[in-house]
User: Fold Bridge-like lipid transfer protein family member 3B from Oreochromis niloticus.
Amino acid sequence: AIQIQLQLSRKHLFQTLNLSPDKINLSTLKGEGQLTNLELDEEVLQSLLDLPTWLAINRVECNKAAIRIPWTKLKTHPISLTLDKVVMEMSTCDEPRPPNGPSPIATASGQSEYGFAEKVVEGISLSINSIIIRISAKAFNASFELSQLQVYSVNTSWSISDLRFTRIQDPQRGEILTFKEISWQMIRIEADAIQSAEHEMLSAPIRLITNQSKIRVTLKRRIKDCNVVASKLILILDDLLWVLTDSQLKAMVQYAKSLSEAMEKSAQQRKSMATEDQVSSPPPSAQQVRTQQASSAADQSATMAKLFSAYDVCETSHHLQITHLDLHICDDIHAKDKVVNKRITGGAMQLSFSSITLDYYPFHRAGDSCAHWMHYSDATKTRESWARSLLDEFRTNVEMLKSTVRDQQGPSHTHSSPKHGKRTHAHTQVPPAPQTPKTQLMSSSIVLRMADFSIYQVSTADQRRSSPKTMISCNKKSLYLPSEMPAIHVEFTEYYFPDGKDYPIPCPNLYAQLNALQLVLDPRSLVWLNLFALDLMQSLEQFMEIYKLTDSQKPDEHVDIRVDGLMLKLVIPTDQDSSSPADLPRSISIQTSEMAATNTRHPANCTRSHLEALLQAFEEEPFFSSSFSSFPRSSSSLPILHPVFQRHAHEQDTKLHDIYRGLVVPTMGTDALKMPAATDFWALHFAQFWVDYEGTRGGKGRPQPFVDSFPLTVWACQPAKLVQHQEKLRSAAGPGLSRSSSAEAVARLQRKRLLKEYYSTDATTSSSHNSNSDADVHVLVHVQKHLSAQVSHRQYVFLMQLQRTIKSLQQTLQQDLEKMSSKRDRKDPSHHPADRQPFTVCLGLLLKSAEVSLLLKPIPQPEGSGSPPGSELSPSESRGTLEPASDARDGGEKGNEGSGSEGGGAKQSCTVDQLLCGDGLEVGPMQKQSDRSDYGHYCHTSSCARVCVCCSGRLMRDRSQSSFSVSYKNMKKSPSLQSLDNISIDSSLMEDGDTYSLLDRGKNIVSVLVLKVQSVCVGMEAMGESTAVALEVGQVTPSQLGNVSLRQYLSNRSLGKKCKSGLHSPAVRARLESGPWAAAHSPLAERNGFLQLQLHDYTASFMMSSLRNLALFLEDDSASQVLPMEISIRDTHIDLKDDDPRDNPDSEPSPITLHIDSLIIHRRDDGSFSIGGAKRARTVGGICGVSKATQTQAPPTSPPPSDKEMMLIEENECLKVELSRAKMALAEAQMEKDSLLHRLKNLKVSTS
Assistant:
């Protein structure tokens, strides 16, 4: 037996060392031997190491080797093989080399059963003092130097032990698990560009030194033939510190780009040659395990089977784990290949990452469970459910495509023999129907997780020595989120068939989850990063041109993407010195509780039915109509509601729809159901979205509210690219489509063409902004609920500073981009064609109702007066809900009458403080009861405790079923708060048991002016450097509350109250233009912009004190820019009441009624104002985008329409009615479909 073992060991050893038996000097009795000047076999090593096919071994040498065989302990102790110095030369392959051969262990065993000899060979331990690996590539040379490398067998605890404990064998499965570990003390990596006369690329060498690391390997083999069924490889790296200059980072990107094409080809080859052994094998079912256990002869076999299942490798996977990574990127000041002179020299940025894991699963059955994956979490579960929905939709489409292909093949055979009613199979050759491939659809997934990370702001040598501030960080600790929740979780999945069959496959999908991330928009860091990225891109383009590299990426290919966000925060700071007032904010924070962004229609609130409801809300406003061309919009404005939105809502832009229309020939190829990225429709839904002021020195670091929480929905698409894609399909389809159209459809198209010609704008108008009506990007923003905001004077001053800061940053970034583009164009004029159109963006925003509270200075009061006239709330009143002030006309009468009724009203109301404290006061019907967290609901109950109980469900529905809850420090929970566990509370509430405790209870008295607006419609167009913003407000209702306690007002204001809807003419119209479009008005307008404002048919009442306070509110000490403007006021009635304190309180001043028939106010470039009358009112409606104001306010009298025109008008009205009915029916059907699907899903869950 010993001789047989020796022969097998020597046979395997000779294959690896490329030696013949007569050249080895081995002492058989002692079990020791030495070899010198060895040359190892390259192909055997390639197969043993399972190298990728884009990498080949050219030569391997070893100066000295020693072997030691413990003959008497082969079952428990390994054979030791020691190598002194190994030098390996490798090269990259442009085309993948032939795949690796079979494993040397399997070859040595002669494909026999896994026995004693195989155990001895697999248990060999290897020790190498030094390994030098040199790699030659097309663009660079690299070297790897490892010291003290060891390979040894370990047990399940990854520690060296008896060889019998380094494997787990399950005879029932016929498989065995073995555990190996590879460790080394240090690795040194160097890479440098190849210098030659042809390629004069200046590149800095790259160096990286790591400390002790290890690789853990788990192999699963079949016992009958020793073949590896699956393997798991885990590379574990400890703390890494890497300092890179920008030149070195450029070199890294260039080297990776040079290898990307070869690596992609090798990956495709590996997928196409995947065998059934490598496919993921699901763990056995419980019934199989019971059968195995029943059939086992002893309890030991059952124990081994359970142990095998605990450490089983279900599928092949590779993993990378990094405990901590510190990366420092700094400017290379002495570099000779500087492309641009940076504004910030000597800048450095630190990137710190904690607990990075990268997992790769190359052979996973599509649609199978991922529960056996490493680090399986809720994020993976969410992505798994989403991907399964996409896969189910794809399989349904494949079945529909199959039937379409059959239908297309069917008529061709019947037309060939029209005399027969039935198809003859004897004489007609029928093409084979599309068949489902025998091999199963596979997926290849990459999973990236980061437990925590921080990216710090750019620091320079001239800055003061202080700890760097974070730019991007994770706020898990401050929000008390679970520590196991990753900051970033990303999964990318591709699909393929192992045999490479030409059959439809799904699009790749990308899922990302972002948790508690905070981004600080530091201007210095953004400028530095912008220049750094532009410089990197330009150097990469030069590198690709030199080495004739092609871009292997497919930017036009559609990828299903979904991004989920939890507690995301954006902070925009301003530069302020220490001398600024203490109550002036330092930054503004934009936050959201939950966010979903996707270009698929599977997540909630992102479906086609939601888009249809949004479009109906937009269509109710005439401002968004395509025929609306009056001020503040123009005939040259882009259509905000582009037709592509309707087509997408009705599912008329899919590949199957194009096939049914005859634009695409149905096939069963790989890309049969794939769409280009140009057809993507993005939907963003924010469950709660709010804005706060931060950084006041007097506020103890707590935020102050700006915009209260509200749900927000955004839809975006690329109509220009989508229309181009449709035109390509039509041109490829040819004239066959029109021949298949019926006579009725042709007549309908002719009528539509007549309607379009009739309603088209006059050709005599001047040149429009954009000759093409399709913008590059169209965005629709919808705010569904009532919006509330509050601004004080200091906060208004801060917002003006913030606006100037953002504008300056935008100009700086634009200048750097233009400077880089001009240098690129001078080097290669082909990159910038002369007919290149500027980038255009069109945005539409709809806000049904909102209120803006202006916190003004308190109104002076006479001595001894408790409350000023017109005030509905005094500081001494009970904490009831605030009622809006009455009109100034009858303010005196209602003010006296309301003194007695308000006490009763306070008793009938339940305040926020009572809600949160659980006071059991008897209340009546609650109205206008709300706070910052959407407490604005109408509840009928007998106590506030019952209010909390009955409102919790409604609160959850109003928060878009948000189940996220945050517990805050020092927050005590009373029994009455048990029903509020699932309610999300803003960070500005419930801190240290006091609401808005930064405000003194009795000292902060303000005068509040509330502006309630309804039907706010905004349209924005941007083309290159020109921008035009059109605004239309339906109603503006001022409400003056007088002097109130700020803390009391913020706690009890009525957030949920909405303005009454109804037909109305817009009260305010405004248009703001900047850039070349505004140059037609004045030279200064091109830089600062030009504002046009119309206030027509408006009636309001104001107190004189409120207007004086409003003037003080709008004062800004900083040097403001002159904004040229033109204000038109017509048919406006303003009632003014003098509420100043008087010596004689009995005398009541009579109100002043101000009527403005027509007034024009101009502000010129020098800042002067000119006021005119009705003579200029005729040209107010001019639009800034044209050279001359040709549009007049009143349209000229037109002749009566002809009979043809009347017929067309009637046809148009009929079409409108028919379209509205169809929309309503479709919306009802969609809602019914969603309801049925939801019920079906619940039934499936309950039955399972």
Notes: The chain has a mean pLDDT of 75. The longest strand covers residues 1026-1045. The chain is about 30% helix and 30% strand.
